[in-house]
């Protein structure tokens, strides 16, 4: 598919892949190749690093419940008690996603109008304040209500970042950038346990128990980074020259022309509800969303329950469990970048997802069924790497196969929305009544991986057939207006 995809585009769209992995379109440009690479790298440092750091704190704030739970929160607030067949702890984890899912589609419209700097920095500071409030929760009801508010505020962050990144890069530059973005986010999962263990040592200070300090200190850090983010974040390419000391108009024009040569949708379109919703008619979009659901079911299950599993299933102490969360995520970062690099270099998306899911299936099987705790812990490495590496891989898979600003916005919201549904599932698969083995949860994770393999196979077959029809001139792929540039092919 890699060579086919390039050869079938118009001559003006053929790409030269440079040593650093970035691609430059072969068209008239006032900048030399070296100057072009410098501009791209400047965007990487300013855009990818900034949204990655903010996502790091977002993921930490969203998933620090597991650390707080074994630090005394469950006992103090009575969260181990059941509500029907579900524990109050599971309810607290999943109520976040009720608003997180609902408020994502409008968020991608709002960010286009308000701009990323204003919108994203505001919601980061606001949810930081909510996190501080969680540290003073005195009951299950208060904590659950604050989690609902947290879902409203965080709803706009991830889809807006996915959408923003996709507007800056060409289709075969985006995989590595999504990987770095998510790697920085994964640092939260790697370091959260160690940080939480340190904050637990504040137990008794100012009359507050250790788990409360986890929320208070991390919430204050979130507020600080949200304020800094206002100056660090950049706008969409068509407004990039307005971001202080970033790109001038000539450089912004180069980026817009570069993306237009690749897929023809860099310039903003007037909002049209019909165009926005029309993306839902493409069955592939729901296939991508289902893959993301399957992936996030596993990643959230790990985020919410891994310290608990390490303690109750593998026999590690509370302190050791907090710290042993870090190494699997560090290993996941290596696999994540390697697969992102390979996907961009060889123009592959589906095979990367298949590799990740096979890794996840092997790891989950070892985690659940080997007799040795040490070997089961090795399985955690494979499961964590496969599941988390699939997040940027799925985002790249979708970004490569759609065109149009508002379809892109709709699809970002749909993808991440289904990821939120996966968060609900991930918060429920490991039930306290199934401990210490948690076998039903492990079976559910394996089933999600197997379903992903089936969906990737179906999308690949459909994309291959559509590309062949386009080659014969029977159809035009992803055509969205009269000025559309032809020659687009699906990536698989």
Q: Poorly predicted ranges (pLDDT <50, ≥5 residues)?
A: 1-27
The averaged pLDDT comes out at 84
Name of the top-level CATH class: Mainly Alpha
Number of strands: 4
Largest sheet: 2 strands, antiparallel
Helix content: over 70%
What is the gyration radius calculated from CA atoms? 22 Å
Indicate the proportion of strand residues: under 5%
Shape: globular
Helix-strand sequence: HEEHHEEHHHHHHHHHHHHHHHH
Total domain count: 1
CATH fold topology: Growth Hormone, Chain: A
CATH superfamily: MFS general substrate transporter like domains
Task: Record the strand order, biggest sheet.
Answer: 1-2
Distance between the termini: 7 Å
Q: Name the structural class.
A: mainly alpha
Counted by DSSP, the helix tally is 19
CATH architecture: Up-down Bundle
List the helices and strands and how they pair.
Blueprint: H1 2-7, E1 15-17, E2 23-25, H2 33-63, H3 65-77, E3 82-83, E4 86-87, H4 88-102, H5 104-114, H6 116-134, H7 140-154, H8 157-168, H9 174-200, H10 210-232, H11 249-263, H12 273-278, H13 283-312, H14 318-324, H15 326-346, H16 350-369, H17 373-399, H18 405-429, H19 439-471
Antiparallel strand pairs: 1-2, 3-4
Helix pairs in contact: 2-8, 2-9, 2-10, 3-10, 3-13, 4-7, 4-18, 5-6, 5-8, 5-18, 6-7, 6-8, 6-10, 8-18, 9-10, 9-14, 9-15, 9-17, 13-14, 13-17, 13-18, 13-19, 15-17, 16-17, 16-19
């Amino acid at each position: 598919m890699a060579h086919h995809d390039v050869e079938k585009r118009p001559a003006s769209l053929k790409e030269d892949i440079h040593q650093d992995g970035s691609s430059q379109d072969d068209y008239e440009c006032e900048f030399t190749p070296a100057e072009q690479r410098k501009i791209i790298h400047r965007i990487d440092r300013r855009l990818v690093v900034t949204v990655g750091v903010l996502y790091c704190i977002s993921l930490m704030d969203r998933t620090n419940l597991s650390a707080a739970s074994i630090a005394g929160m469950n006992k103090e607030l009575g969260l181990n008690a059941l509500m029907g067949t579900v524990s109050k702890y599971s309810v607290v984890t999943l109520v976040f996603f009720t608003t997180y899912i609902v408020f994502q589609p409008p968020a991608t419209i709002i960010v286009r109008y308000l701009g990323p700097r204003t919108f994203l920095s505001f919601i980061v500071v606001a949810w930081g304040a909510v996190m501080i409030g969680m540290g003073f929760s005195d009951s299950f009801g208060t904590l659950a209500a604050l989690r609902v508010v947290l879902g409203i505020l965080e709803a706009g962050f991830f889809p807006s970042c996915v959408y923003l990144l996709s507007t800056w890069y060409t289709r075969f530059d985006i995989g590595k950038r999504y990987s770095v973005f998510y790697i920085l986010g994964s640092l939260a999962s790697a370091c959260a346990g160690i940080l939480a263990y340190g904050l637990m040592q504040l137990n008794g200070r100012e009359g507050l128990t250790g788990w409360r300090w986890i929320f208070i200190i991390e919430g204050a850090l979130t507020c600080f980074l949200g304020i800094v983010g206002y100056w660090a974040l950049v706008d969409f390419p068509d407004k990039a020259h307005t971001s202080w000391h970033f790109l001038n108009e000539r450089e912004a024009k180069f980026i817009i022309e570069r993306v237009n040569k690749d897929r023809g949708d860099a310039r903003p379109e007037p909002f049209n509800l019909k165009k926005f919703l029309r993306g839902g008619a493409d069955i592939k979009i729901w296939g991508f969303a289902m893959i993301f659901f399957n992936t996030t079911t596993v990643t959230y299950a790990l985020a919410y329950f891994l310290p608990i599993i390490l303690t109750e299933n593998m026999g590690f102490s509370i302190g050791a469990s907090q710290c042993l969360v870090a190494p699997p995520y560090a290993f996941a970062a290596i696999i994540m970048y390697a697969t992102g690099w390979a996907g961009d270099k060889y123009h592959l998306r589906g095979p990367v997802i298949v590799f990740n899911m096979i890794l996840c299936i092997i790891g989950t099987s070892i985690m659940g069924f080997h007799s040795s705790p040490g070997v089961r812990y090795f399985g955690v490495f494979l499961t964590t790497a496969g599941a988390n590496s699939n997040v940027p891989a799925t985002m790249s898979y979708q970004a490569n196969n759609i065109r149009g600003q508002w379809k892109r916005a709709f699809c970002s919201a749909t993808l991440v929305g289904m990821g939120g549904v996966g968060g609900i599932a991930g918060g429920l698969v490991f039930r306290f009544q199934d401990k210490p083995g948690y076998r039903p949860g492990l079976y559910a994770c394996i089933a999600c991986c197997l379903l992903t393999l089936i969906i990737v196979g179906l999308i690949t077959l459909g994309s291959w057939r559509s590309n062949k029809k386009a080659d014969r001139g029977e159809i035009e792929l992803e055509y969205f207006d009269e000025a559309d540039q032809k020659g687009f092919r699906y990536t698989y």
